[in-house]
């Protein structure tokens, strides 16, 4: 299984768009891997996890032909993960001239919980948007589904109260190996651990939200929560001896540039994601 981080920043980007804090200043000076667009990941060649408001810039930077993307799996409905406007453009004939094939083969399959669906339905209310270009599949925690040749196991994220919005993270398997993609979540509940054990999964890669950096976790994890998650997965037998642990969804709250993060996390055996990082699981 292979995937590519197209964006590894939090909602405000890194450095944050209008921010002049010390770490944003240092990140602008350092450039390169310290410049992070909003979170989005390409799994294989035709499946996106989330749709970043930076998707146009990401497609240009990495030479992606987005007309080939047939599937998007959403973690939650926040606008830095579900770009309303990009979906509207994909559904407008004059804005997206799709490859020469039958219209029914140009359908974009979207997967997400009911809050994602409600936000997507706002797109369909736009006058020129063709509903025939989309097919929405509602997903629920702990109900696996097949998408783009992969099996997704939706888990409950600890991002917002469930009565406000049900946010998800995913275990993903191609039948040979599995990864845990844990963005936009605080410390995870043990119900997720028990469920993963019941599925018989063992992760080759664990991608973890670390937007809080060295601060205490809240609806995002900090480094302390990431270390605790690794320990829990190890105790439960859900990872391998050579599993890779990668920090993602980084923000200026973590108060470190990319090179500073690398130096800090290396003794712990933890990697730092950056825009364009390709991972083979």
SSE diagram, text form:
Elements: E1 2-7, H1 22-30, E2 40-43, E3 47-49, H2 55-62, E4 71-73, H3 84-90, E5 108-112, H4 114-124, E6 134-138, E7 145-147, E8 150-156, E9 168-173, E10 178-182, H5 190-199, E11 203-209, H6 223-235, E12 239-248, H7 258-265, E13 271-272, E14 278-280
Parallel strand pairs: 3-4, 4-5, 5-6, 10-11, 11-12, 12-13
Antiparallel strand pairs: 1-2, 1-14, 2-3, 7-8, 8-9, 9-10
Helix pairs in contact: 3-4
Characterise this structure.
The chain has 281 residues and is an alpha/beta fold. It contains 7 helices and 14 strands. It has helices at 22-30, 55-62, 84-90, 114-124, 190-199, 223-235, 258-265; strands at residues 2-7, 40-43, 47-49, 71-73, 108-112, 134-138, 145-147, 150-156, 168-173, 178-182, 203-209, 239-248, 271-272, 278-280. The strands form 2 sheets. A 7-stranded mixed sheet has the order 6-5-4-3-2-1-14. Strands 7-8-9-10-11-12-13 form a 7-stranded mixed sheet. Strand 4, helix 3 (84-90) and strand 5 form a beta-alpha-beta unit. The protein is globular. The model has no long low-confidence stretch (mean pLDDT 94).
